[in-house]
Amino acid sequence: MVVCALCVIPSWAQEIDTTGIYGERADSLDAAIFVSRQAGNYLSKGKELRTEVISAAGLCKMACCNLAESFENSASVTVGYSDAVTGARQIRLLGLSGIYTQMLDETRPVMRGLAAPFGLSYVPGQWLESIQIAKGSSSVLNGVECLTGQINMEHRKPTDEKPLFINAAVMSDTKMDLNVASSLQMGYKWSTVILGHVSGNIAPHDMDGDGFLDEPKQLQFNLSNRWLYQADNGVQVRFGVRAIQDSRLGGQMLTGENGEHVFYDRKTYSLTPAPGTVDPWGSDIMNRSMNAYLKVGVPLNEDNSQNIALVSDYNFQNMDSYFGSTQYLANQHSAYANLLYQNVINDSHKFTLGLNGTFDRFNEDFRRAVWRSTGAEVAEFNGPTDLANAGVFGEYTYSYGDVLSVIAGLRADWFNHVSQDASKFRVSPRLTLKYMPVDEIVIRANGGRGLRYSTPLVDNIGVFSTGKQYIGAYNDHILEDAWTFGGNITYYMPFGASSSTYLSFDYFRTQFTQQMVVDYEMDPTQICFYALNGDRSYTDNYQLDFSVNPVERFNITATFRYTNAKIELAGRGLVEKPMTSRFKGVLNMQYATNLNKWIFDFTASLNGSCRVYDFMANLVDDEGRLIYENGRTPVYPLLYAQVTRRFKGWDVYVGAENLTNFRQKNAIIGAANPRQPSFDASCIWGPLMGIKAHIGFRFTLWKTA
Questions:
Q1: pLDDT at 64
Q2: For position 59, which CATH number holds?
Q3: Where do the DSSP E strands lie in 100-189?
């Protein structure tokens, strides 16, 4: 048995699924290539955790300009905007915010702290080979911050036989996206991949006529270089660097004296502008980051059944941001290290031991002035904060052929920043079971504990886009604590044109024992931050998946998810969590003609209602009608379509999203008076942009020798 030392990672993430209908083809090479077909989104049969895979084919079904847009075909992950000003995207897994999902870049934790609000926009979809979405409490090997699941991203590899790949797309809203990738092999031992990205938009848009940009003016540069060294003795070294700069200008777009567009200027903005002056409310954000990582794997014996691995990562994130009269200037130094030892005793038994830890230093300069009836009120803080944890862990895996797998893990972690008189040590057990009584049925069960430090303002960046006063623990870093448990059963049915027809059902529950609560409902002019402190907060998530190929080259996937989310708010008791959709259904169909010359993709989703905040229940539109009947948002559909034509080495594609042209009405509350406490651009539950068309191409130059 040969085990790569750098693959001492959760078993659900070890397989890289990159083949697909958009993948390699014989017409691009002199030599013949075996071409396999698979759905763009599917449930992995072999993995212990309930894992949905978005393959290379799935990443090409739509424009997929960045990671956030790669989840539109998935009901497991719901993607939305954090507010109507900054363009920041957020995901939900198991009905909870993406801050409770551990994001991994080839098993390295990423998108933490300051990097989280915009991190989804900084991973171009065409940089990726696949995405694996694992629900529940996953392996203890990568840290303790997984509360609802893990999303692991596999990037294009240095060993790819593709010296040049180019992808370019342009949207009808003038957003443009360019990606370049080049994999080069320099002999047997050394290989590298260079990844470049630039995106931005040219023209501002205000489709709903509220005076605010629907999306900010934005320009992003992104460059990455990854290396692989393979020694003759089996040692592997992987390392790389990445740099990002992203600027965003959003908010009001007013008309000046000469009829020109006037945008927010943080240097001149005032809570009380002089009469007759044009002084728009807006946001001005500049993000810069530098990242470097190193992974070393060393075999300890000839068959590599024993090996050690070191995984380390450093990230610097700088965020200079202004929202009206709010200033938030911050930077974060993050370090992560993971040392692992793996021993594969035989085909049935293996174990992994190790220790890892994270360190984050936040330097923050926060100042916020809001208008109150008694005049301007100012809140501010500044200075460094150090958040760290270190843990020791062990994981044992027992396998009885393909019939039974048991993974038992245990962590003991020390945390430096906990509330007074609370223990700095926490123990986190995790258990995963997989049972296949027959080849057609897979049964999984999973449970465990997750812990993470809260960063209240960054975790809830939408609060900056309001006129409300902050009260409570908005500068505290509560250690959030939750247990997640659940299971999955999948039945592979013997019909259709392939062997991958399946029906799957899963249920997961996440229950918090400690959580940072961001309460909009205590007072309509305030946002209150406080700890859960023993009150109830839980989410039940049910999901049904079905996939079939009724005929050759035609795939149909249907998914339905229902969420029951409750929280106990101060003075309110147990209520339905606001702004959390009850259900989502997704239908995806893909058909390809012979030899894959034409590929047709269609996706339809039905998005359920959610309870709005109390202060939104009585809002009326311009005609005096209630916007939210019974205090709930409407159920709405979204439609996506794309057609791809393949040539030798080229793909040309054209498509559109949000074909129903559905948009959230009155997305910005109090848009006419953004300096008042009633102003709120953070209450987003639906699309902000109407129908958008796109056209693009992909070019691949294959290595011929």
A1: 65
A2: 2.40.170.20
A3: 101-105, 108-110, 128-135, 149-155, 164-171, 175-186
Evaluate whether 107 touches 10 at the Cβ level (below 8 Å): yes
For 203, 245, 454, 692, the CA distances from 173, given in Å and listed in that order, are 7, 22, 36, 7
Burial-class residue 443 by CB neighbours within 10 Å (0-12, 13-18, 19+). Answer: middle
Write the single-letter amino acid at 586. Answer: V
Contact 228, 159 (CB under 8 A): yes
pLDDT at 112: 94
Q: Write the Ramachandran bin of 111: left for phi over 0, alpha for psi from -120 to 50, otherwise beta.
A: left
pLDDT by 10-residue block (mean), the chain, 705 residues: 42 36 38 45 84 82 78 84 91 92 94 94 92 91 94 94 93 93 93 96 86 93 97 94 97 87 92 87 97 96 91 97 96 97 95 96 95 82 95 96 95 89 89 95 96 95 95 94 96 87 96 96 94 95 95 94 96 94 94 93 95 93 88 95 93 94 92 92 92 94 79
Is the separation of the CB atoms in 31 and 12 below 8 Å? no
DSSP state of 534: T
Give the residues across from 180 on adjacent strands.
Answer: 166, 196
CA 265 to chain centre: 31
* Nearest in space to 610 (alpha carbons), one of 585, 576, 575: 576
Q: Which residues pair with 313 in a beta bridge?
A: 293, 336
The C-alpha atoms of residue 548 and residue 561 are separated, in whole angstroms, by 18
Per DSSP (E only), the strands in 324-374 are 326-344, 349-372
β-pairing, 101-105 vs 149-155, is parallel
Cβ–Cβ < 8 Å for 87, 250: yes
| DSSP type of residue 626 | B
Where do the DSSP E strands lie in 401-440? Answer: 404-415, 425-435
Of 651, 657, 695, 688, nearest to 174 (Cα)?
Answer: 695
Which residue type, as a one-letter code, is found at position 329?
L
Nearest-5° angle of CA 656, CA 660, CA 664?
A: 110
Give CA–CA dist 377/152, Å, rounded: 43
Which domain covers residue 562, as residue numbers? 5-701
Residues 6+ away with beta carbon under 8 Å from 450: 100, 137, 144, 145, 146, 147, 148, 428, 481, 482, 483, 484
According to the model, what pLDDT value does residue 323 have? 96
| Residue among 451, 400, 415 nearest 430 (CA) | 451
- 347 contacts 399 by C-beta, under 8 angstroms: yes
Q: Give one word for 41, left, alpha or beta, with left for phi > 0 and alpha for psi -120 to 50.
A: beta
Domain count, the chain: 1
The stretches of 116-220 forming alpha helices (DSSP H) are 116-119
Which residues, in sequence order, are CB contacts of 188 under 8 Å at separation 6+?
230
Which tokens in the block code for residue 47? 């993995």
**How far, in Å, CA of 111 to CA of 315, rounded?**
10
Cα radius of gyration rounded to whole Å, the chain: 25
First-to-final CA distance of the chain: 31
Q: How many CB atoms lie within 10 A of CB 421?
A: 5
